[in-house]
Specification:
By secondary structure, the chain is mainly α. The protein contains four helices and no strands. Helix 3 crosses helix 4. The protein is extended.
């Protein structure tokens, strides 16, 4: 998989690869965060839904622009919504 990184992201990656970063978390905190991340991305339930053909086409188009599968985009948007991290533009 090829990552599309901007200049700032490339600098951060380069810095990380040169081991210029040091963890400030304890091993127990790291374990807690790893478990939370693992459960966040665990996909253990299947959902079927109906939507208009046009909405699906637009969703697939947006996913293509973002460079990810449309089902992943759908899951991400729903996750952000239920976590109150998705808001309407004013």
């Amino acid at each position: 998989m090829t990552l599309k990184l901007d200049n700032e992201e490339k600098e951060i990656l380069h810095s990380y690869e040169n081991e210029e970063w040091e963890s400030v978390s304890s091993p127990s905190e790291i374990s807690k965060y790893k478990a939370a991340a693992k459960s966040t991305f665990k996909k253990d339930k299947r959902v079927n839904t109906r939507m208009s053909e046009r909405d699906l086409e637009l969703l697939q188009e947006r996913a293509l622009i973002e460079g990810l599968p449309y089902q992943t985009l759908m899951s991400s948007v729903l996750h952000k919504y239920v976590m109150n991290r998705l808001s309407e533009k004013a």
